[in-house]
Amino acid sequence: MKLNFRKYKKLKRKNDFLEPEEILFNKESLSHLEAEDDLQRLEIEVGRWGIKSLAYFFIVFLVGILGLVFYLGIIRGEYFKASAEKNSLKSIAIPAERGLFYDRYQKPLVSNKPVFDLVFFPNYLPTDKNGREELFQKIENALNISPQFLEEAVKEPEAFLHSVVLKPNLTSQEAIVQESYFAGFLAVQVIRQNAREYKSPFVFSHLIGYLGRVSKEDLKIEPSLLDFERIGKVGLEAFYEKELRGEPGEINILRNAAMEIVGQSYGKKPKSGQNLHLTVDKEFQEYLYWRLQSQINSLGGERGGVALAIDSQTGEVLALVSYPGFNSNAFSLGISEEELAALLNSKTKTLFNRVIAGLYNPGSAIKPIMAVAGLEEKLIDPAKKIETHGFLSIPNPYDPEHPSIFLDWKDHGTIDLKAAISRSSNVYFYILGGGYNNIEGLGINRIGQYLEKFGFDKTAGIDLFSEGIGFVPHPEEKKNDIWRLGDTYNVSIGQGDLVVTPLRLLVNLNSLVNGGRILKPFLVKKVTDAEGKTLKENQSTSLLENFLKPDNLKVVKEAMIETVKSSLGTGHVLSDLPFSVGGKSGTAQVAMNTKVNAIFFAFAPTDNPKISILVLIENAREGSLNAIPVAKDALLWYYQKRGL
Fold first, then answer.
1. 152/121 Cα distance (integer angstroms)
2. Which long-range contacts (CB under 8 A, 24 or more apart) does 67-70 make?
3. Which of 216, 251, 278 is the last residue of a domain?
4. Model pLDDT, residue 254
5. With contact defined as beta carbons under 8 Å apart, do 456 and 508 qualify?
6. Which residues contact 103 (CB under 8 A, 6 or more apart)?
7. How would DSSP label each residue in 77-121?
8. Claim to verify: residue 30 and residue 144 sit in the same structural domain
9. Fewer CB atoms inside 10 Å of the end CB: C or N, the chain?
């Protein structure tokens, strides 16, 4: 057969390149061409039928592709997804090593010990019904946990996002057994956890705090938490949770389609938490706690107390004792409901941090602040003497036959300001606060202004949660009654509606002896990483300074020194210490005047104080006399062990 090239349109060849269709030409066909130079390209018209055929072909092809996508992605999507997951890399989060606490001399206050939890991860359950039933049966056989309980745990869609601790606090041997028993089931894993072991659990319970399981409320606040780990609940453990927790790691587990684990490795190694170096002196804290306990036991026990010490010049907390303490190690592995109920219902409010959250009448301990307010307002001359007589009688306009009598704890005679502070005269401060006859007093409005200037209505800002706020009374806030002169008298001696926290009281009294600086108290000196590199260092911070005249501060400080030096001073028992001491006693009547709280503030040495301390004992019978011995012994210990 010969091709008739003349039937087709001829195109002039533009180059010598051989087109694909020309490969099919045989030698005989090419021989009909007159010469090689006349070799011509051919163009064959497809026609209308060709174009339609191509269009139909591509339409059918496209419909087929879309159908295949729909079949694989929609109809069989769940099947292929499950199949892919069976052969995918799964990740199990693991908690990081928790950071540690050290005292100001680098003595450890806590250590970590490994414990293991058996944890159920619903989102890694087998996708097939038989596999799920097999796992539930194994859990029931090993742990006596019913399949119904597990079904309920994963009933809601969101439940798949949360894990369940099946058995906590496994020993190393138990962990090995359980890990072997549940091998091949990714939904049940043995997770290593950190359990705290506190060196002095009762002594540091309110300061360091303890760990507890993550709750639903915790997850709402911080969704990034692992819901099976332990986090800080109170104390420094809670306040510095982010620093202490570190960054969790991941273990990657590879399984094949037969549900067999074929390998595992670290996807991301956990990053250890940061270490906290405290301002607290471990040995001093321990001494204060046991000395306070001894004093309280001598009064019959079952009462609370406070012992707080700070560096007078920096605000660093040297010791923070809220008594009674509790065994924080009991919370480390999970406290029983009975034990927790006993703590919550205890008469002494064992879990309550009295130092930062307790609200107390300051009693006579407030008098130095009233004195400096009177000096600032130029209402009193320090050298002017006032007759006290042991009581103050105020005419009663409603019943002239029965005047209002405001008692002192003794007759101090005629005294000046320094004697009034050192001997703790009530009458002198009744007059200073509310006035008497022709002597002008501060009045409740100015008293309130100075109390608020000192910050008694604000927190001190210590690095602990749940710090309480004192209450400064104002006439317009008195409910169901009018404000009377007697109310002002009571506030002038730290009674009535005025309440403060022990922490704020010490911080404010300290400002009267360190040159007029109200210092922010703090517990953490620096933060370091696991290698010891300093990441953050806290410095002394003044909340307020230069708000009182130096001459007025000098007068009040000298008066508090007389509290110890004077034979008539309420703190004279401290005068035999081998260093100079100043202070102020306080006795606050509470419970409808049926009980008294004992308070004593002290600082040493007097020329340049290094330590300020506050001791408070509830229901102390003889008032400040029961707080003073604790303060004295604590100061002597500090002098002998640390120097002044």
1. 14
2. none
3. 278
4. 65
5. yes
6. 109, 277, 278, 280, 281, 282, 285
7. HHHHHHHHHHTSEEEEEEPPPPP-EE-TT--B-EEEEEEEEEEE-
8. no
9. N
Tell me the whole-structure pTM to 2 decimals.
0.83
Structure tokens at 634: 């604590």
* pLDDT tens, position by position, 291-307: 999 999 999 989 999 99
What does each C-alpha distance from 91 to 117, 121, 258, 381, 445 come to in angstroms?
A: 17, 11, 18, 76, 64
* Residues counted in the chain: 644
332: CATH = 3.40.710.10
- The answer to the question of residue 643 being in a domain is no
From its phi and psi, is residue 548 left (phi > 0), alpha (psi between -120 and 50) or beta?
beta
Residue matched to tokens 């210092």: 519
Regions in the chain scoring below 50 on pLDDT: 1, 3, 5-11, 35-39, 42
The torsion angles phi and psi of 606, rounded to 5 degrees, stand at -75, -30
- Chain mean position to CA 320: 16
Does residue 209 form part of some domain? yes
pLDDT at 9: 47
Regarding whether 121 and 16 lie in a shared domain, the answer is no
CA 500, chain centre distance (Å):
22
Write the CA distances from 139 to 118, 133, 187, 205, 227, integer angstroms.
Answer: 11, 10, 11, 37, 20
Residue-wise pLDDT for 20-29, tens only, equals 555 555 555 5
Same-domain pairing of 441 and 532: yes
Q: What sections of 144-261 are H helices per DSSP?
A: 147-153, 172-181, 205-208, 216-221, 235-239, 241-245
* Residues 22 and 36: beta-carbon distance below 8 Å: no
Residue 16 pLDDT: 55
Distance in angstroms (rounded) separating the CA atoms of residues 112 and 192: 12
Q: Which two tokens stand for residue 557?
A: 């400080």
Q: Give the model's pLDDT for residue 380.
A: 95
User: What DSSP line would sit under 295-328, residue for residue?
Assistant: HHHHTTS---EEEEEEETTT-BEEEEEEES---T
How many whole angstroms separate alpha carbon 113 and alpha carbon 302?
34
Confirm if 29 and 2 have CB atoms less than 8 A apart.
yes
Tell me how far apart the alpha carbons of residues 29 and 8 are, in angstroms, rounded to a whole number: 14
Residues 202 and 253 in one domain: yes
Domain stop point among 263, 278, 293: 278
Question: Distance (Å, rounded) from C-alpha 4 to C-alpha 10?
Answer: 12
How far, in Å, CA of 307 to CA of 502, rounded?
Answer: 9
Sheet containing strand 164-170, strands side by side: 164-170, 110-120, 188-198
| 232 and 269 part of one domain | yes
Q: How far apart are CA 260 and CA 257, in angstroms?
A: 7
Q: 257 in helix, strand or coil?
A: coil
Q: Are residues 98 and 240 in the same domain?
A: yes
- Taking only the tens place, the pLDDT of each residue in 307-324 is 999 999 999 999 999 999
Domain range holding 13?
A: 5-42
Q: How far apart are CA 72 and CA 60, in angstroms?
A: 18
272: tokens are 């250890």
Tokens for 455, please give them. 């910050």
Residues 247 and 340 in one domain: no
Three-class SS state of 353? coil
- Give whole-number Cα distances, 603 to 321, 513, 581, 586, 642, in Å: 18, 8, 6, 15, 15
Task: Note whether residue 408 is domain-resident.
Answer: yes
Q: Which residue has the tokens 């009693």?
A: 363
Type and span of the H or E element at 192:
strand 188-198
Residue whose pair of structure tokens reads 């690095």 in the numeric block: 463
- On whether residue 317 sits in a domain, the answer given is yes
* Residue range 367-397, pLDDT digits in tens: 999 999 999 999 999 999 999 989 999 988 7
Q: Let me know whether 224 and 244 are in one domain.
A: yes
